[in-house]
Write a structure and sequence with these properties.
Elements: H1 3-42, H2 47-61, H3 65-75, H4 85-111, H5 114-122, H6 127-157, H7 169-180, H8 183-217
Amino acid sequence: MDWQLMLKSIPSLLNGLGWTIIISIASMLLATLMGIGLVMMRRSPFSLLRFLARLYTEIILGVPILVLLFIIFFVLPNFGILIDPLPAGLLTLMLHYSPYIAEVIRGALEAIPKGQVEAGRAIGMSRHAIARRIVLPQSIGLILPPLTGQFIGIIKDSAILSVISVEELTFIAKQVISRTYAPFEIYILIAIGYWVLTFALELILRRLEYRFTTYRHG
């Protein structure tokens, strides 16, 4: 193993790692917002919105993320819709993960005992107060464990964006390998990079989960 080569490659890889962090955080936020929207549609009194949310979920869950990326980046231009690599990558991650996040959120909301909501109404609490003081604190503690897995998936799947030349960690690693002809050393480094990101995220979300779980049982 060429340790000197690995040390020389770290600055370039750190640049790619920085973009991976940016892409992952942006995708997490976008997918979560869209997931919340899907939950609202699934719980809507309008049957059309519920149907559209279920249809979208079924379609996306049946399409591999790489195929979805190719459709967005390579197929849509045939219909006059041109999307740059980075926005196409963010869109792909958002569309792919939003149904999974929606199911996580919906499951947590349905796990809240209805009796607590009814009790809140009985003592005159508004819908906003019930959501803020009863539903939200409990649901967040239930959402975080499965949400952690989805967010880790986003970090790892961001590597797929390298196939459309988004300059994240894997793409930069390929460029470094083309110059150094040292795939073993470079792939070891990027594996460590992804592990550090996922481990750090897991620690942060576990800490949040502990706080909300303590609040819920306190």
